[in-house]
Amino acid sequence: MSVIIPVYNAADHLPECLQSIAGQSIGFERIEIVAVDDGSTDGSGDLLDTWAERHPGRVRVVHQENSGAPGGPRNRAIGMARGEFLFFADPDDYLGTEALERLVAAAERNDSDVVLGKIKGVGRKAPVTPFRENVDGGDIFTSKGVWSLTAHKLFRRSLVEEHGLRFAEGLRLAEEQVFVVPAYLHARSISVVSDYDCYYLVRRDDFPHLTQEVPDPVPFYANVREVLTIVAAHVPPGAQRNKLLYRWLTLEILGRFDGRFADLPEEVRALHVKLAGDLVRAYMPQTLVDQLPPLSRLRCLLISQGLVEELTVLTTLVPRPKPKPKPESKPKPEPQQRPATASGPAPARSGGSGRYTPARVLRALKRRLRRGR
Fold first, then answer.
1. Which of 40, 66, 176, 286 could form a disulfide with 151 if both were Cys (CB 3.0 to 4.6 A apart)?
2. At what angle do helices 14-22 and 44-54 cross, to 10 degrees?
3. Up-side HSE of residue 87: CA atoms within 13 Å toward CB?
4. For the segment 347-358, what is each residue's pLDDT rounded down to a tens digit?
5. Cα–Cα–Cα angle for 259, 260, 266, nearest 5°?
6. What is the tens place of the pLDDT at every residue in 194-235?
7. What is the DSSP string of 246-289?
8. What is the pTM of this model?
9. Over the Cα atoms of the chain, what is R_g?
10. Are 86 and 107 within 8 A, CB to CB?
């Protein structure tokens, strides 16, 4: 099997990642590491070359000019890979010792084209919903895979090549989705290994994490549109499609309008609202919006109507997220807004609880706007 690693200036953490792969219980003789040095300037490339010299045939390295994002390096590595299965790792993370053995066993046992291994957050949040129980030979719905769209999974290479699956290039957030989502939808079956910590997703204070960045709105929403188009082409309208769309509506669209939104320049805020509104109107049925919690429905209304000023005020009224945990702390649970199963929209509610009900927020919006915020 092939483990693919896009590497950029990760010299302080890369040895731990590489060693966790070399020490896999499946046996290093059954693994090839395909690493793409994306223009590193900190010695990461030399470190990779040393590993390649020490493990000829087991570690293959290619160097290239910096592309600015991991999608391009991953795509180049896919073209080089020779294994029956592909696993994607990041250079600042590491694998559990039995991870690849368990993932390959699940793929072979269930004839699965995609296998999700439990992701453990180290100082940062990790997905919880897909990993509450093992799944043998499920699909995108029974695996709840839509709640884990990062690349850190096992994919059968024949599936990837048959459907020409590749990552978005040059995009620094959610670039994995145009690869992972069609893989889910085309897979003969999807399995989940939830009873073993397969992949350790690590927060590094000295290492830039793309998920913490505010994305450039034009490529970001274009990427989301491409993914939503894929979903719409494969899943007919109705409750099942809504279960999937709920994820993009709440995370990728409404998630852009948190406390950071008010800090953006006016023209950027306006662009976010326009592009997000286009997606809401084109892909999100009213039956889905009606099932959201009250404040989320209010956000959808303001976005779809292009009310930038009102949205800006709203994001200043609702509390900002608490600071991210430090590395030694335990991962925090997923946001309360997500339903207990996170497999679809929460039941419709006509009212709200606590301080931030729609009526109170609207009154506050009007007061703030009259005062000029």
1. 176
2. 20
3. 26
4. 444 333 345 555
5. 115
6. 999 999 999 977 655 555 567 899 999 999 999 999 999 999
7. HHIIIIIIGGGSSTTGGGS-HHHHHHHHHHHHHHHHHH--HHHH
8. 0.85
9. 21
10. no
